[in-house]
Amino acid sequence: MCVLRIKDCCKVNGSMQSAVLPWITISSWPSKLNLHVLEHRFRTFICLCTTLLHVDYKIMKVNKNTQIKVKMIKEHQVSVKKKPSVRRLKNKPKTVSENKKNSPGSGFNKPDSQANGCSTFALDDEKEDFQDCREGSESVHANGMETSEDTEEVQPGRLEGEALHHCAQRGTQQNRAVLVMQKNQTMCFRGKCIVTCLYGRVEVMGFTIDEGQRSYPLFAPASHCPLTIRALGNSDYIRDDRTEASNILQDYLSQASRKKLVKKVTQTSSIILLDPLETPLTRFLSSFTHLSELFSPPVSELMSAVLDTPLNGLGMIPLGSTIEGLKTSRSCRDALSTVVSACRGDIDGCAVILVCGIKNVGKSTFIRLLVNTLLNHTSSVDYLEGDLGQTEFTPAGCLSLATVKEPLLGPPFTHQLAPEHMIYYGQHSCETDLDRYLESLKSLWRRRPQSREMPVIINTMGWVKGFGFQLLVDLIRFLPVTHVVQLSHGGTTQCPSLTPEFLRTAQGYHTRPPTQTALNEFTETHYPPRTYTHLNVQSEFQGVGRQGTATHQRSNEHRELSLLGYLSQLQSPDPGPVRPLHTLTPYQVPNTAVALGVMHCEVAPSHMFYAANASLVGLCCLAEKVTSKGGPVVLSQATLCPCVGFGVLRGIDMARGLYFLLTPVDPSILRKVNCLLLGAISLPSCILTTQPGFESEMPYVTADYSFDLTGAGKLRVFKGLMRPSLMGVQ
């Protein structure tokens, strides 16, 4: 690295001799030199070079008649500990307020002046690292005034290491902490907590939390990307930040802790309260051995975990700057801005946004960002689920229409809810019955009141090849889409761009260009728009383009977590030990009052009960009344009907004609259920293998089974899938 020095600038025969340096020639210096101005200009020049050069310099005596020294900035507050990521001066510069600039008590001593008003200076340590000098110079006003001791310098960026010890304090109550963040500071973490904004504003996953709003739960498990809290600063109006913050903190901190944090509060600060988070969901998940570390950092992040901070006792672990957290590309931010502008009135009617892209490209992450951003401007957002394998609000295998009113500050298993309308498809892929998939989505769309003006977000599958791509073309034609957000990665698109121009000649599964030959009745009543806005997003989310291989990050594990999240609703909301499912009291349902059907395969009626026992079933409502001739009612084929929830068929009593059903669905809604549908979505194995209290063989579990027997495995039936080479062949 090149080192730039000014070694010898001395007076010879009454005049200054030139010093030849790389890039610079200083010559013809005047005998009477305003050294204060020269110092300022020289330091400014050196600061411009610091990004390329490491500078270590000194200035010797310039004039024997001017021997007065000016002290350089080396004073730093001794009480402030050194931050690990930033080099600091040993003594911190002080800031002075406007009414104290000329005060003798400000700590600034004026140097003796020369006849021309200048002063001389010298550095005490010629080996001083220039990074310290640059930071000191940036903290000093042009007039040389130092700043006040009450204000502590805070660097924007990631909060980690020692900075967390200075900016966070434990509360007077056990396991509670208060954190002060400056504008644009971030904190990335794993774990779970409840966040309350006491002062200023913070942003999480696109959602803004203002002071005075209610508390929100945050979930950052190892199965998904860590969460990042970012401080947005305060509002534009002027406020007495110190006094107001002190009054707020006195309810949560002791006097000593409050005094430490108040020093760091400015008009652009944000103060958040962090509480531990324990819910029936977290207790239920932690009861399984393989999920006990779900909210801890994965192995790949252990070296970046910041331990021994006031926040660790809350159940959250901050991460160092080596872990990037959620990263959004420029095209992603532009797409979010475009959609939000459209939803705020740039278009007539409501915005209908269809999000598509290959699997593992970040569609779900983008949708959560979009929903949270829209909730900053509207009270609710409609969500149409079209991805059977990675559902957002229900267990896998469902198509649903939900109204989202709360921000999504965690992965899908943390916000399972009851949609307004739902259809149980029974599989995590639609390849076996494309017609039923399209009919289900159209049925859900018809149930949405067309007078609603809230935006609609449509999630789609990651199947964008062959028939999957044709289904996308059909959905854009069937639904009144205003925006198509197409995600890709690696600088290329993994499928053709679904622009309006491309759609004019594209082949759909049900539709043909240029007219919609199928579903004329549907289009006559809904008038899909002739054009829409196509937005191409290059995804830069964590792990984009590849299937997760670490524990809890595989797609099948995500589906199991969503189902466990749904079943956690069976637990009591009151704190206490987790009750295994076999200890809960089930509902008794007469088999003559409900029909039983299998959706994903063909099962003989005599084997139907063996297949349904100890399985997950959809609780559905048939339009026609179920009638029995004295025995159980069995459906001969799958039917399209509304679903109100799910249950576990934990036992069948053939002698008494009863089904024993566990479900979190409210009894008032259960009265409408007259059909139990069995699909390919099976219970997680941990539900069956983790049954405490049994000394002998556990129920529903056996090791005496061979898949080598004919018919022992699953039987798959493919409907309507003809090879392209056989199309048109009779």
TrEMBL record:
It is found in: Nucleus, Nucleolus. The keyword Kinase applies. Residues 357-489 form the Clp1 P-loop domain. Residues 169-297 form the NOL9 N-terminal domain. Residues 584-684 form the NOL9 C-terminal domain. Residues 81-116 are annotated as: Disordered. InterPro entries: Clp1/Grc3, CLP1_P, NOL9_C, NOL9_N, P-loop_NTPase. Keywords: ATP-binding, Kinase, Nucleotide-binding, Nucleus, rRNA processing, Transferase. It comes from the Eukaryota. Residues 81-93 have a biased composition (Basic residues). The keyword rRNA processing applies. It holds the Pfam family NOL9_C. Its main location: nucleus. Residues 102-116 have a biased composition (Polar residues). Belongs to the Clp1 family. NOL9/GRC3 subfamily. This is Polynucleotide 5'-hydroxyl-kinase NOL9. The lineage of its organism: Eukaryota, Metazoa, Chordata, Craniata, Vertebrata.
